[in-house]
Amino acid sequence: MRNLACKVAGIPFKNPIIMASGTFGFGREFAKLYDINKLGGISSKGLTLHPRRGNTGTRIIETASGMLNSVGLENPGIDAFLKEEMKFWETIEPVKIVNLGGSNIDEYVQGALRITQDADDRRKSKLQAVDMIELNISCPNVKEGGIAFGIKTEVAREVIREVRQVTSLPLAVKLSPQAEDIVKMAVMCEEEGAESISLVNTFSGMKIDIYQRKSMFNNMYAGLSGPCIKPIALRMVHQVAKAVDIPVIGMGGISSASDIIEFIMAGAEVVQVGTYNFMNLRAGEELLAGLQSFMELENIQSLDEIRGII
């Protein structure tokens, strides 16, 4: 067996495979299909301070080599997650990452506070707890007319700074590919104390019903993910990894072990697998086996040998 160990913000991962937010739930359903303890980590379904019902109308449409989604951060809210889903998370081994969203800075801050306090209480009781917060700044800022926090660097700086002050948990910031300057955005995150950069989130896309003569989505646009975005995501990960000294969590269209290798060669410390979970319900274990096979074939002892070599 080859050494697949990685480390992000001082947290050890047994391997670089993390299941991406919104594509794996909290892992409970997939645990019925294969041993999810083989995974390096799980990023939770996007959570907000208060429960959300999500968007109405069509939510998911398959597109060429990918999918469009307009789910709208439907989730039970942080309190319900901590009360119910953490019972399951206490029983599993992967690194536990909470993806945190919000409509304004106060919601981010209050959400981070509750997650941190719960983690502190659990550790005092010697229970497994949340290991990391992944800050989703692609959420619309309701006080700024719905423009995502992650578009403008100085707007994003404010929310990251406020959250950093209230949590002792390692903080990864998940970047939007719509950022006005994604490298500048990543550098700012490092300046404000983020321990990791997570990228990329979905691209903005559209699908038109040519018979009804309107968008297929009530919100007009939707998030594009899947293999179709991989070349662009890979380029962005490469650019960001060259510009920051903190670990990069790469994602965007990963559907094979060779995709994972590409992201690591581009500089990612670990990766997240998203849309592929819908295409292959055993994606995690199959990608892990493929990664081991590639390393053996190429006589690679450790991922450190190839990380960031491009």
In short:
With 310 residues, the protein is of the alpha/beta class. The protein has helices at 78-89, 105-124, 153-166, 182-191, 230-243, 257-265, 276-279, 283-297; strands at 6-8, 11-13, 17-19, 41-43, 60-63, 66-69, 95-100, 132-136, 140-141, 147-148, 171-174, 196-199, 203-205, 208-209, 214-215, 222-225, 248-251, 270-273.
How is this structure best described in words?
The protein is α/β, with parallel strands linked by helices and 310 residues long. The chain contains eight helices and 18 strands. It has an eight-stranded parallel β-barrel with strand order 3-4-7-8-11-12-17-18, surrounded by five helices. The longest helix has 20 residues, at 105-124. The radius of gyration is 18 Å and the shape is globular.
